Amino acid sequence: MRICFITSYPLKFAGVEVYASKTVEHLVKKGHKVHVITYSYGQGFHGENVEVLPTLNAPLLRGVSFILHSTVAILKKKHVFHVLNAHIPFTSGLPCAFLPRKSRPPLVITCHGTEIARATGNPFLKKILLEILGRADHVITVSDFLKKELMKLGFKGKVSVVRGGVDRKLFHDNISREEAAKIIGLNANRRYILFVGALKERKGVFTLIKAFHRLTSSMEKVSLIMAGSGEELGEVRRLLKKLNLTSHVLLTGSVHYFKLPFLFRASDVFVFPSYYEGFGLTALEAMSCGVPVICSNIEGINEVTGDAALKFNPGNTHELYEKMLTLLENEGLRAEYSCKGINRAKLFSWEKTARETLKIFRSVQTDTK
Predict the structure, then answer these.
(1) What's the first-to-final CA gap in the chain, in angstroms?
(2) 22-71 pLDDT per residue, tens
(3) Which residues pair with 224 in a beta bridge?
(4) Which H or E run includes 84?
(5) Residue 10's pLDDT is what?
(6) For domain 177-345, which CATH number applies: 3.40.50.10190, 2.60.120.330, 3.30.70.100, 3.40.50.2000?
């Protein structure tokens, strides 16, 4: 099958790129031809063909220019592909959806969560999203939670859930904490709490910082690593300074995907304090590395972690503080949740993601003949 992905690409920090790239990797392994139309990077890893379109370097204009250029690119190649798979409805989905059905191959749009969150409570974005998705031949959501949220918005088309996976050759526990710490330059004699994600309020970063502030009053030689970037970095720095935490918190910026396993393995606890997640991919990667996980008690994350993580109510600083203190003081409990996480992560694989996605691609081919 000849498949065209329209998405940001390839492996980066964000879940969309990881999901798309790993799905592509396993589709190529199954013998399918994959062409990627993107606005980010031009390097392919798995034998896929990557076409980078010119875009303007400004947030809104980048999206608009990508929509225009990708529309032209798709029209030029409309007879080449058996199916189109767009991964960001408001940008990559838009040019595909508004082409006449006779002018394009069958269209599958994958929703990762941000677009549904934005449309919830915003009538204008809700109308646009439902219009775009309504023109697709099939919609994929990356969790049951997102499928339910999409139904609440009033979507009545075909929807299937295809969860993400984890690369266990990359995310594993085969390296010791001490070795991992040495590789990335951390002091193995300190305790490390790790956060990986965008520095945004909805990711719970301010709740984490405040809970960590309380923890430093109860424990010595403990540090917080915040691996990520975002528009609220300035606010994060101001809060750290206000709480006298600058020397206790390491702001790494975005970490290359292939370095994340070392960061996970060097850490004692991984905290995922989000208010909203479509699918808890980072928690899954942490569990696969054997790192005990503390996460918000919300549907998008619970679908991934099950009972293999300690939970707290999102935004509750005291609860998060208590969970971190309990785990760091109890080696036996850390070992228990490390084992639980590894076993839970084995239920997810990118091969399964690709297999289920391919089944949908084949179904839309049949339905549109």
Answers:
(1) 15
(2) 999 999 999 999 988 887 654 556 566 888 777 766 666 666 777 777 77
(3) 193, 249
(4) strand 83-86
(5) 65
(6) 3.40.50.2000
